[in-house]
Every structure is written in structure tokens, then in C-alpha cells.
């Protein structure tokens, strides 16, 4: 089986454990109301919470150098909103803190926490993210022995180097680490290029196209949820996270 001599796991965070868009939209709504209250002139440039997303996208085009550091990009876009509205741009620091705290209020996919609980009792685990989560605020730091963010390292997925840093920190050979993530390029291709194994988490049907196009489907796993991974890791147990999973149909190359 693909998992036979896997000695450690690494996991992506956004869209692997929680719905990233929902978290960011929620945080933008909080930020929007905070701005209207503390910098009321912003109402003129922010017709709705989604306007904050548009300013962020515009800033990403103007300042591609900020795209790899989400905090700086977001702060720059808030700064711009305040400046355009005739409010004090210095408020952007406080406004960002409101956004950042709200962005950590994630809604986990229902399989995520039971799977983290179960898998972390069996494997050392690393988190590898290009995003801006705070695992202490989210409350899942204890599941991971290694936590790597591109914002801290200056190396982002799919660069194999960030996976090599994870392997060194886990003290496990790349070939014995399974990386799990939702993004075909960042997670699957990145992990494979670093000599890791890879599990592509496809929670929605439309995501399956690249795997079919690339062929060689036995080079990686495709998972629909994290319960499947628990089941594959030890189908003989009846894990907490595997409850109800007896009815899961696994692709034939899993067995
Ligand atoms: Mg992701």
C-alpha cells in the first residue's frame, strides 16, 4: 500500500483543513464594519464588504512584490482604502489586527479535527503553508511538531526547498513523508518534486481534471476527505475519524 513505510506526514492548511474563502470573507466583513465605525469616511469608497477584496486584488497587481507576504499585501490595501477615503492611513495597523484575528475564526471541514487527532497519535506531522494562519489562535498547534510558513522562511510551495526544510525538521527521509494538500501545483507537484509522496485532497468534483490530464495516477493518492487517509493508514482499527467510513469506496489502486 502507498502508506506502508510512511513515517511522517506534512499537511497544507488553507482549503485542506478549513474553507479558506469563507474565513477571509468573514474577516473582511468584520474589517468592513470596524472601518465604518472607526474611520467613517471609508463608507464612500467601500460600498460593501466585498469591496475590500477588490482593493486587495488591485494592490496585488500594483505591488506583485507583496503577494508572497499576505500580511503586507492586506495592510497595504487597507492603507490605500484609508488614504482614498481621507482617513488616517496609520489606522491600517489596528484595522489589520482586527482582520487578522477574524481570519483565524475558521470553520473546519467536518473530517479535519478528528483526522488530525487520530493521525497525530500515529505520525509526526508538519504543517506547510503559504498562507497566514495562526495555529495558536486557531487552536491546532499541538497536533504539529513542525510548523513552516512561507512568510517566515521566504520560501514558498511549490519550491522543493520548503519541503526539504520540513524533512530535515522532522528528521525523516523525504521518500517516507506523505504530504497532503488541496492545491495540485503547490502541494502535489511541489511535494513530488522534493521526493515526498503526495496525497491530493479533492473535496469537490471539478478538481479532478489535472490528475487525469497528467496521467501516472499511481504517483500520488487522490483523497476526497481526510477520513479516507485514516482508513488507509490503518483499516483494521476502528478509528474515531474512520467512523462511518466503512462505506467509503476507495479507488482500486489503494488496495
Ligand atoms: Mg491549500
TrEMBL record:
It holds the Pfam family Hydrolase. The keyword Hydrolase applies. Keywords: Hydrolase, Magnesium. Its cofactor is Mg(2+). Gene3D superfamilies: 1.20.120.1600, HAD superfamily/HAD-like. InterPro entries: HAD-like_hydrolase, HAD-like_sf, HAD-SF_hydro_IA, HAD_sf. GO terms for molecular function: hydrolase activity. This is Hydrolase.
